[in-house]
Fold PEP-utilising enzyme mobile domain-containing protein.
Amino acid sequence: MNESPTQALLLASGRGVRRLDAQKSKPIPLVETPQGQAIIDSQIEAVKQADIDEINCLAGYHVEKLVETHPEIEYYYDSEWENDSNISGLAQYQQLLEGDLIVVTGETLLQPEAITRLRNVDCDVTVAVSRFPTNEAAQEAKRMLTEDELVLLEDGTVQPDVPDDQPPDARLLGAASVSDRGTERFRSAVMELSRADNEAAPSFYDVVATLSSADVCALEVEETVQTYDRQNALGRFLLGTKADTLARLDGILEEANILDQVVFDVATWEQTPEGVVDRIQSSFSSDPIVVRSSAVVEDGWHDSQAGAFHTALDVDLTDKRALTDSIKRVVESLQDGSGRADEDQVLIQPQVSDVAMSGVAFTRDLDSGGRYTVINYDDTTGRTDTVTAGEGSSQRTAYFRHGLDGIRTFEGDSSLASVRAAVEELRNLLNDPPLDVEFVVDNDGTVTILQVRPLAVHTGADRYDTRDVTDELESVAETIKGLQRSRPLVLGEGTVLGVMPDWNPAEMIGTEPDLLATSLYEYLITDDVWARARAESGYRDVRPEPLMVTLAGRPYIDTLVDFNSFLPATLPDDLGCRLVEHYVDRLSAEPDLQDKVEFDVAFTCLDFAFDERREQLEDAGFTDEEIATLRRHLRELTDDIVTGDVAPIATQCDRLVRLADRRQQLLDDEWETWSDTIRCVTHLLDDAREFGTLPFSILARYAFIGTVFLRSLGERGVLTDEEIETISEGVPTIAQELATDMQLLREGELDESDFLTQYGHLRPGTYDICSPRYDEDPSGYFDVDGGLDADPLALERDRESELTEWSPTLSPEAEAVFEDSRDRIRALIRDEGFTFTVDELISFITESIPLRELAKFEFTKNLSAALTLLRRGGREYHDLEPDELAALTFEEICQSATTNPSPVLSREFDRTINYRSKRAQIQDRITLPPVIRDSSEVRAFEVKSEQPNYITNETARAPVVQVEVREDLSPDELNGRIAMIPSADPGYDWIFGSDIAGLITKYGGVASHMAIRAAEFGLPAAIGCGEVVYEDITGAEVVELNCADGTFEKIN
């Protein structure tokens, strides 16, 4: 028996609360319990009441705050606290592991009685445990807790490594007594673990497991020791198997109904199947019924096994054979996949009829782990399984942020409000754990809960504070309110923010880009260049208003500014104001048009089908005179563009040639310092703006106008859809050349160094510094073994612009189409009052479309070279990896171009990166809608299944493959498959080197890069299908994509 342990050792290195404002962050011992007492206050109080005077504390995260709070105890700094292990730090201070010890982990609350009892055990090492009161509780713990917390107890000692087929006896707690004679063993275990090459950082429980090769005594402490950081404790108690959970909730819910149930285990079924059937038939009067699994391995906190076992719907209660066969199928699925079938249960319930709504609700966002109630529902089919089966074309998803005032409701959604009330009741009852709730609502508005289970959502190891998330959301809301107010330099007021209108950031940089990518896109396009390009082309000059705003790290197009920039510069302000506000109102009413604003919302040029859209303006209250005025100004604008009276195409080509000449000069320099590197980067990007993205922006607008003219020729009956496709495929582009050369590369007919010399600067994620260029990782993109022998940047010095000898060409088939329709086109030109000729229009179409792609190809050479230089310079001069540089803005990085760098610049970068990491964690817990119409939508919003843009009239039925999640994907694996990519970024052009069957993108509009590519190659594609549909498709193996009918279907 220990007389008097000489010291208490608190292991308190880890994070507790991490706030964006570091002054508000705190280590775990300073986290307050619900009673308002800090954990360390409780620990010190208990230790002193147990007559222990000497207290040592191993601390790391914000140790200074612990010192300030309790200066009377001795602190030892854990320099390795970030690896989430006290044990690695403890190895630095072996002197702490001498004499008699009470060891307490930072998140452990204990009473003096527990310390006294631990000291009184006559054992080298004694650890506190909590014995499970029943076998059921042990099984629950095995599902809910980590393996290293669970032990067997044998003759009062701890035995780790519980066998799979055996329930644990107890759970380890974070308190132990180590006697003087046991400290050598304890110290040896700590040193052994600190030296081991483990994937996971060693924990206090690992020390206990290492020590247990010899006796480690167990002390059952009942409620005198608790682990505070165990959230969801009540939820863990109430949430068992599917059947157990429903039984425990029955009778205690006011906002929802629990169905009657019959439950039996597999062993009972195998012994007395006829008795079970008789019991079921006598228990229910309603018909039909549902037979479902209720497995021990289902619905855990770390792995849900959702959908792993069979469910039988619409089973005829009166048909014994059908009932028996249904139960057998469920039992067989358990026996095949559970591993613990004898303990598993089968659950029988009535089949719900009269279904008005069905679906699934989560109490966390699956993608981010953010605190949202997410309700995915179907209110059209009358079925109960469309959401869980991933079926139903009209699924909708509503998001409600937890803990914010002003949560909006949706018009006419009483069923949705009832479901939300039921979920809120469950959250409050269970102390808000992550939940997965399956429900139905009948036509009387009654909510029936079919299942409640833990939601196995993984959000990373770092803690974050919900107050910071709330502050960030409120800041987003205030920013949106400001954008809704009138502004002095633009017409109209009110705006709609979208991720896909016009310059489509979702397509170009993604919906959650790194900060460097965002700042580069702003610098090269959306801050100024886009508006300058519009102004040079004859549109209203809206500078200095930026086009894009960033909310919680997500880029949005400000459509009020965007719609202003589509007005002819000569249009009267009063009419322009009315038009802009009409466009905003139309997009607000039909947010699914966000990727089609130039076609279906705004009037941005005059084509041959103006009268087909005239009704839109008439319905909005515009007079014939106003419509005629708009038509006249659009005619003058369009005429000037096609004839070359404004910003002629030749001028844009000259700019691009100059870009290449200057790039060669810049890359011929040598970079001996960080400042040298940054000066070159800055010059490359300045040139990219002036001679690259500016002409590209103009040519992109012209290519759009050319595309609109082609479409209008179809709408007026001059061209068929097939003839339009013939023209699209007959205009040679750099993308077609790339696809051809990729095929030659795969067939061994093109040398890989020649291929990479031509296309090596391309990268998926054009603005993403973390994305390797083709020539930096050729084997990752193509089936090649080697790469370039020379520095890729050195090769750029010798390459002339693709524009130097470029001239427009057209396939004979496309020429024939134009020739056959020449007279009808001439008549349309004359009727509309244009001054340009048929030849001028055909030249405009056949030049602008390929030149847009060529301009993009050219300016990305500068951007790609700049990113490569940054990667190299960041590593060489500041030991920064690309993912760290990605957290900085272009402006922050490039300050050294005009001023001498700070002597502590590396440390300044590190501080900024650390701050950005914290803020990114906070922003990652926020979910925002793809279209924002009002500040209230940061708190609650709805996302509908979006209508994709179907390209070609072809059909493809093939397996699907997600390109962006397969780092090991080879080009051959794409052959014969439908490729899925998140955005229409041109860096994904390498997929066309494979013989893909079709293409599906989450983001991208009808005029997007990949839409154009698909049209060029005659490839069936669904562009911009939206988040709901895209995520639904990801679970399919085979998809049929029917572009002619505008449908796609999951085959399995």
About this structure: The longest strand covers residues 170-178. The two ends are 67 Å apart (CA to CA). Residues 204 and 668 are 58 Å apart (CA to CA). Confidence is low (pLDDT under 50) at residues 230-237, 299-306.
